[in-house]
């Protein structure tokens, strides 16, 4: 009897000692880097709803099947940006017409603008939805104590979009934008193992020695992120960015 009682106490001690903390973390938002030239500000003042065309990174015609799937994914991103700009009231020209002109060696922006009837070329320099952003600090909710989490367990991914605006009539760079959307800028609760080596986000099952919060952007998350990017683009076009 005494032996069973000791075993019970020992088992209880193990359960308590292994019980996880309820912790919370919040990643720091990365600030946008936006430069708008005086010429662009003047243009925005006189052109409230300019016509625009998207210029996307050049892609060779011969690509593998895997590369083709990747291109299709990125083409969907570009289509969403164009759709959002249309909804915002801008005239969006077919980027295929721009590509055709550029492929013939046409480099005079004023002539390009006349032929495709566009005011601004918005060049997509890069777009990335998987930039690592590791968080190494969390707060135990019960004690409000901050703890360091070793390794790369919490990864609040960052989406990044780089753009350049060209005023076609003048052939001048009007704006350069580096835009960021950071996941988990709100406090996010999770279970933290006593060893601080494992986490489990509430609502999920199992322990994870390494996990990314929103590791892959699903369709809904991607569309919301691109909508945020598109709103900033629209603000720059309308002169609403300081």
Notes on the structure:
This protein is α+β, with helices and mostly antiparallel strands and 242 residues long. Helix content is 35%, strand content 31%. It has helices at 2-18, 38-46, 65-87, 95-103, 109-116, 219-237; strands at 21-25, 33-36, 51-55, 91-93, 120-131, 134-135, 137-140, 145-148, 154-156, 158-167, 172-182, 188-192, 199-201, 211-213. β7 (137-140) and β8 form a beta hairpin. α3 (65-87) crosses α6. The chain is elongated and about 70 Å long.
Percent of sequence in beta strands? 25-35%
Helix content: 25-40%
**Strand order in the sheet with the most strands:** 2-11-10-5-3-4
> What is the global morphology?
elongated
The ordered H/E elements are HEEHEHEHHEEEEEEEEEEH
Number of strands: 14
Structure annotation, total helices: 6
Q: Would you identify the regions where 5 or more consecutive residues have pLDDT less than 50? A: 4-17
Q: What is the arithmetic mean of pLDDT? A: 82
Domain tally: 1
Q: Biggest sheet, open or closed, and with what strands and sense? A: 6 strands, mixed
Give the end-to-end Cα distance, rounded to a whole number of Å. 77 Å
Determine Rg (CA atoms, Å). 25 Å
Q: Which structural class do you get from the secondary structure elements?
A: alpha+beta
């Amino acid at each position: 009897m005494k032996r069973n009682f000791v075993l019970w106490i020992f088992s209880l001690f193990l359960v308590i000692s292994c019980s996880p903390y309820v912790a919370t973390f919040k990643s720091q938002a990365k600030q946008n880097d936006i430069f708008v030239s005086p010429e662009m500000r003047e243009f925005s003042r006189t052109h409230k709803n300019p016509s625009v065309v998207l210029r996307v990174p050049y892609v060779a015609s011969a690509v593998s099947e895997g590369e083709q799937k990747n291109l299709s994914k990125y083409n969907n991103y570009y289509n969403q940006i164009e759709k959002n700009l249309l909804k915002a009231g801008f005239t969006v020209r077919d980027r295929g017409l721009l590509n055709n002109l550029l492929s013939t060696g046409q480099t005079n922006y004023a002539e390009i603008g006349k032929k495709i009837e566009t005011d601004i070329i918005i060049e997509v320099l890069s777009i990335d939805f998987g930039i690592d952003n590791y968080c190494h600090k969390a707060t135990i909710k019960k004690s409000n104590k901050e703890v360091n989490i070793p390794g790369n367990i919490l990864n609040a991914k960052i989406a990044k979009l780089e753009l350049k605006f060209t005023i076609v009539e003048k052939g001048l760079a009007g704006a350069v934008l580096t835009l960021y959307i950071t996941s988990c800028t709100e406090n996010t609760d999770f279970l933290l193992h006593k060893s601080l080596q494992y986490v489990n986000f509430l609502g999920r099952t199992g322990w994870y020695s390494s996990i990314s919060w929103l590791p892959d952007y699903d369709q809904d998350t991607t569309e919301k992120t691109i909508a945020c990017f598109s709103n900033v683009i629209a603000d720059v076009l309308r002169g609403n960015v300081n």
